[in-house]
Amino acid sequence: MNPVISLKQASLKFGRRALWEDLNLDINPGEFFAVLGPNGSGKTSFLKVLLGLQELHSGHVSLGGHPVERGSRLIGYIPQQKPFLPDTPMRARDLVGLGVDGHRWGIRLGTAKANRRIDELLDLVGASDYAKVPVGQLSGGEQQRLRVAQALATDPKVLLCDEPLLSLDLHHQQAVSALINKQCHDRKSAVVFVTHEINPIIDYVDRILYLAGGRFSVGTPHEVMTTEVLSDLYDSNVEVIHANGRIVVVGLPDATTHHHDDAHAAAGEGS
Amino acid sequence: MDLDSLLQSVFNFENYGELLVLVQNSLWAGAVLGLLGGLVGTFVMKRDLAFAVHGISELSFAGAAFALLIGTDVVFGSLVGSVAAALLLGLMGVRARDKNSIIGVIMPFGLGLGILFLSLYEGRAANKFGLLTGQIVSVDTVQLQVLAGTAVAVMAALCVIWRPLSFASVDPELAEARGVPVRSLALVFMVLLGVSVALSIQIVGALLVLALLITPAAAALRVTSSPRLVVLLSVVFAVSATVGGILLALGGRIPISPYVTTLSFLIYVVCRVIGSVRARRGLNGRVMRTA
């Protein structure tokens, strides 16, 4: 099986600060790949590299066998949640419709066919009841379900998710991650799932890329989420506790001590 | 002037039938521009470019005034001015805040240039005034054909980029991820917008272009969020305003633009009221299920 995403000796730097260096990585179809790490460690930048919106400092990255370009038809993307303005001129079904054929030229001619697909997707994520509500008037959880429907619309080979569970309650978290997992295993999409919290998806994850302090570790959750590996990455004593199929990391360096770094990274990532 | 003669100059429907024949070309021109304005306007709203339209029209005015001064075609002059302004904005203003300040800088400069050219011009005063307030009464058949041809070309181009442009306008981050050429589309749209502004200036003038390119689409958005309905209503509103405005203006002694802008404004007010009544009743299309 050919990998659908491939990074070779990839490095990413902002100024002199390296986010990660010499990363070699293949992600296969049907693989659920999680990217973890503290704020400012380069998780979102990793996605931007795959989206072609962020140039590597050195190395190569390919998607579907070709060098990464600015965006791709192969990609389904669930962005970090950013609520729509209340007067956005678009209903729920129109947002999903953009995922179905928004990238095509011309005007939509096969309306019936597109509508059928949109209804199918709305039904899949349980959004049929608010199909005709303007997106700006929907709750965060409802908007996020639509994002999932939109991302799945073209049955993408690669599904990139940037903190898709953020601001969702537990029930919605489970629903959304189950949908993404279904796409991954039933339709053999490669999923790259950026998150700072592994537990909601722990049952689905095949491999993890853990980014911290300019270094990284790749492997199964079993290999990466250990006291030794994380202590080494964070360069301090971190303890990883496995309990009831959940993973708790104790003693992470205080987030506030990284404040300057975070602000720097946010500025870098935003550009 | 007493009220009676004031009314006489605003509304006068004597010899209406004869006048109607004379302005047939103007009516067609109004209809074409309404159609164009209604279509382009929906994207202007989606892309939050209302202020940009104003800036472009000011530079278009400067271009037209310069053409008048040196004795070449005024329409061509205004076209050059507005396309140059549109491209400038498209290339420079990437971020919204940046864009607004650039427009704020360009606008008075364009208007100032226009006034300079007009004060140097020694021809008929009506020509000068027409650039600012519109002068559609005197459209001949050749002009109408050029106008219609250009408008059709703009609309055809708009149709070709319709879907990706919509995607890039309301959901740019996702559009970019899906490989939609967001930046090129923005530039192409700015050119189409520049041409539309230049054409619209002929009917309502540089100062009132917003009434054709913003108000109808803004009114439509008050009453519906369905993309198709927005386009349809926006076109209907714009055509009603232009054609209705010309019909009302026939007998009076004042220019057409106040009629067009007033109709356009009234349509907006009505839509706004309908929209707020609906919002108060909580009607937003959600299917309520009783548990």
What does this structure look like?
The complex is a heterodimer of chains A (271) and B (291). Chain A has a single domain, classed as Rossmann fold (3-Layer(aba) Sandwich), CATH 3.40.50. Chain A contains eight helices and twelve strands. In chain A, helix 4 packs parallel to helix 5. The radius of gyration of chain A is 19 Å and the shape is globular. Chain B has 291 residues and is mainly α. Chain B has 15 helices and no strands. In chain B, helix 4 packs antiparallel against helix 5 and helix 4 packs across helix 11. Chain B is 79% helix and 0% strand. Chain B is globular, with a radius of gyration of 20 Å.
Main features:
A: 271 residues; alpha/beta; Rossmann fold; 6-stranded mixed β-sheet; 12 strands; 32% helix; disordered C terminus; B: 291 residues; ABC transporter involved in vitamin B12 uptake, BtuC; 15 helices
How much helical structure, as a percent, in the residues of chain B? over 70%
Relative strand content of chain A? 25-35%
Give the helix tally of chain A: 8
What is the strand tally of chain B? 0
Q: What overall form of chain B do the CA principal axes indicate?
A: globular
* Broad shape of chain A: globular
The CATH architecture name of the domain at 20-207 in chain B reads: Orthogonal Bundle
Number of strands of chain A: 12
Name of the CATH first level of the domain at 20-207 in chain B: Mainly Alpha
* Head-to-tail CA distance between termini of chain B: 69 Å
* Quaternary status: heterodimer
Largest sheet: number of strands, sense, barrel closure of chain B: none
